[in-house]
């Protein structure tokens, strides 16, 4: 016979269990969001490559749809805009490639020296 434990708020064990369940849900949500984002980018890349007339094998489609590295998918997409061969798209990233960085909040990307200055009234 199996007994079920129902966590009750207001108890040490219950609060800890409920907090763990909530954290697990949040992490699962974040992971699902990342997977969905990668899948969307892969779909866009496949669409672009088809529109550009690339002959896509099942192996190539599999490579793209199973990739979960969003910056790499972005790099392949950027290359697919101008590439003439699949080898150009899938070449190893080099030091000269602009691999997009993950999105950051505006506070982290702002550069104080580039903000507009208010010169104030002129002294003339």
Describe this structure in words.
With 124 residues, the protein is mostly helical. 56% of the residues lie in helices and 0% in strands. It has 5 helices and no strands. Helix 1 (12-51) runs parallel beside helix 3 (70-82). The longest helix has 40 residues, at 12-51. The radius of gyration is 24 Å and the shape is elongated. The protein starts with 11 loop residues before the first helix and ends in a 15-residue tail after the last helix.
Oligomer: single chain
Number of strands: 0
- Structure annotation, total helices: 5
Query: Helix and strand string, N-terminal first?
Result: HHHHH
> How much helix, percentage-wise, in residues?
55-70%
Using only C-alpha atoms, the radius of gyration works out to 24 Å
Q: Give the termini separation.
A: 92 Å
Mean pLDDT: 77
What coarse outline follows from CA principal-axis ratios? Answer: elongated
What's the story with the biggest beta sheet?
Answer: none
Instruction: Report the uncertain regions.
Output: 102-117
The percentage of residues in β strands lies in under 5%
Q: Return the structural class.
A: mainly alpha
Please sum up the structure shown.
This protein is mostly helical.
Write the layout of secondary structure elements.
Elements lengths: L11 H40 L6 H8 L4 H13 L3 H5 L15 H4 L15
């Amino acid at each position: 016979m199996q007994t079920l434990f129902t966590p009750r708020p207001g108890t040490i064990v219950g609060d800890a269990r409920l907090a763990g369940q909530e954290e697990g849900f949040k992490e699962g949500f974040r992971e699902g969001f990342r997977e969905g984002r990668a899948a969307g980018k892969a779909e866009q890349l496949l669409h672009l490559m088809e529109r550009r007339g690339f002959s896509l094998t099942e192996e190539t489609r599999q490579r793209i749809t199973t990739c979960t590295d969003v910056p790499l998918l972005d790099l392949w997409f950027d290359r697919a805009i101008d590439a003439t061969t699949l080898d150009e798209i899938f070449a190893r990233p080099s030091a000269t490639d602009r691999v997009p960085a993950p999105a950051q909040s505006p506070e982290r990307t702002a550069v104080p020296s580039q903000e507009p200055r208010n010169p104030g009234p002129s002294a003339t």
